[in-house]
Amino acid sequence: YTTECNDPLSGLLWATVSDLSTLRLRIERIPPVRDLARLPEPLFDRRRLREALTLPVVIPEGAGPAALRAAAIAASWFAVQADYRGAHFPVSRGLPERGDALVLAAGPDAVPGLALPRMDGPTLALIAHPEDPFGTLLVLGGRTEAELASAALALAAGRGTLAGELARVAAPVIPPRQPYDAPRWIRTDGPVALGSLVDREALQSSGYAPGPVRVPLRTSPDIVTFRGWGFPLDLRFRAPDGPIVDVSASRLDVAVSGAYLRSFRLADPEGWIPTRWLTDRIWAFFGADPAVRHGRAVIPPWTLLGENELQLRFDMRPLNRGDCVDVPADPRASIDPDSTVDLSRLVRYARMPSLGFFASAGFPFTRMADLSGTAAVMAERASPLEQGALLDLVGQLAAVTGVAATGLQVVAPTQLQSVAGRDLLVVGALGRNPALGALLREAAVRVEGERLTLALPDAFQEARAVLLDAPSRAERTRASAALGTLGEGFGALLGAPSPLQSGRSVIALTGTTPAALAQMAAALRDPALQPLIQGDTALLAQGRVQSFRTQAPYGVGDPPWWLWPQLWAGQHWERALLFLLAAGALLALPIYWILRRRAVSRLRSRTHS
Fold first, then answer.
1. Residue 140 to residues 9, 121, 125, 337, Cα–Cα distance (Å)
2. If DSSP codes are grouped into helix, strand and coil, which group holds residue 501?
3. Is the pLDDT confidence value at 191 over 70?
4. pTM of the prediction?
């Protein structure tokens, strides 16, 4: 390289760590501390930052809707603790051979081979696995299934009052939640400081090319603004002091979920020094810090689809200070915590069904953070795979909002009318859940026995595509061909309007077998397959996802009247033309009537004269 005047930042310098290097660890497993006050430990360790949670759930044979609700509430609470890691809840009828598990026990003899403590009411208990001294079983117990649900609610809402290995609990009073108040979603009632979304240390950067500063911007994806106006992002940032970086090449790049927005200089060019001197004096006179620079960007609404992230990356280039002159190796820059983002101008409205919204943000079910607007419809004798798919889905929805699913209801197919005012999540293999056929009767894709069918488009399909935003004839034909060529063992995710009440939605997770259904549920957790789930029909066969739009959309939300022309016209020029012609006719008719009246009046006056 060179023998003198080394540049520590030169790309010619490199080092290699030998693959023969070794690391020796001596690990001794410590018996777990079983204390309800330490939950979710020992069943889940938050210090495992990159490991997904897999927690087996023991649900006895013949468990009813109340027991399934209890399991879903408890599973969702663990999924909230796992957060970004993900969570999987395989269901079995008996205890796993080793390890930890969540056990539902309605009565002392509910789980064969397991000695349970006496339960005189809703009970939470941590007991040792009978075959594994390092395994721990969290028991949700009670005399009835209703008491199991009370124990699950106590786990989700009253962990701070629990202690010891066993606790008799009562169902807590949980205050009702408001729409869109999920704690993991950004507020939309005014400007929000970035310092309130992440720790202040996370807004610091060091080095010439550090990784981006990441700020979560999670929200519900049903976002509409007038003419697509974006949301203001007001940034304040500090560049390194002194002549360290080359200001002509150094910048702060702004992006949202990988979509580039704009860049800002870290300092003014040298030609602007007099102007900067004057500006600094003005800011100092009003009490502001002249070292803090300001920038403004606009976040387009189409970039906010649920799991969003604001990415702020400092790109600092070292200043050439001449030969044999040291260059600081670790410059520091930061984003001011008082920087704000403002989503207050949005309107809540979405065209449904949208499996993309469901896969990315759980919409419309996550509109209520505790799923109090959601009901799960399960067959009376659902298999363990179907029950596990339900727990995985509910856990995924709870991880989006950060709230356990304490408001969820679970019903049998014969109880649909009791949950007519809720969004419905239907889980069941084809031919095993009678609710599938009843709830999808208004969908384009329908259930006929143990197969899915789609009627071919009629002669008016293209007209509906223009006026009602329905899919084109070509797309319907493509979806029909895909359904006709599917073999055995495919899974499906279907979206449709609820036939029980307008404005409500149905999402059906199904498949030819319970195993295929479970694979479709796993696809919702797969980072590679999840983005492919779109439209209103998604099919999974041989590890490949195909998505289609087969029906006209319906609106969810209550937009103001002045947005309706924009929502109807959208990106369709022919609709905009029809709207202009209709508006011209509405204006021309009264003008023609007025002019006609005046002409008749003049003729009459001339006749009388």
1. 59, 11, 7, 43
2. coil
3. yes
4. 0.87
